[in-house]
Amino acid sequence: MEILDTAFAQMVKEHKSTIYTVCFMFSKDSDEVSDLFQEVLINLWKGYDSFKNLSNINTWIWKVSFNTCISCERKKKRRAAVPLTMDINLFEDKDENSRQIRLLYDRIHRLSPFDRAIVLLWLENMSYEEIGAIVGISTKNVSVRLYRIKEELKKCRTIKMYCHGKLCR
């Protein structure tokens, strides 16, 4: 059992950035991201002993993380929550690069969780085959969905929006 514990701990250490990346795509709230991370760890632990190395361990971790976050997203939608907000963001970056990254992140966050996951995996330089294996669709379907997602994101860029009382693109 101790060998299993050590191997699991090493796997988490090596792949924690992957898990956090998936969790961050499903929430902007750091507390919720931590909760998602914990849920993913629980599900990885439950399945670790039965992982048969039929796929790459990284692909398995992505799939478990993705499915866990999707399940939590569905549960969250079932119960109404009143978010607590602060009027200021002490960590807000003011430079142009940070603003552009934030705008892209906000646009991606408007996508459905499934499309968000596809974009996330694509941004991680995963092949269409790997993406398809993780999200459970064909390689051709990955290609078609990515094309449609990119077109949708381009449309978002051309729509003028009001952000914090200011006109932004």
> Looking across the biggest beta sheet, what order are the strands in?
1-2
The N- and C-terminal alpha carbons lie at a distance of 55 Å
Mean pLDDT: 80
The percent range for strand residues is under 5%
Uncertain regions spanning at least 5 consecutive residues: 159-169
Shape: globular
What's the SSE pattern?
HHHHHHHEE
Helix amount: over 70%
Helix/strand-derived class?
A: mainly alpha
Radius of gyration: 18 Å
Number of helices: 7
Q: Major sheet: size, sense and barrel closure?
A: 2 strands, antiparallel
Number of strands: 2
Give descriptors for this structure.
two-stranded antiparallel sheet, 2 strands, disordered C terminus, mainly alpha, 169 residues, globular
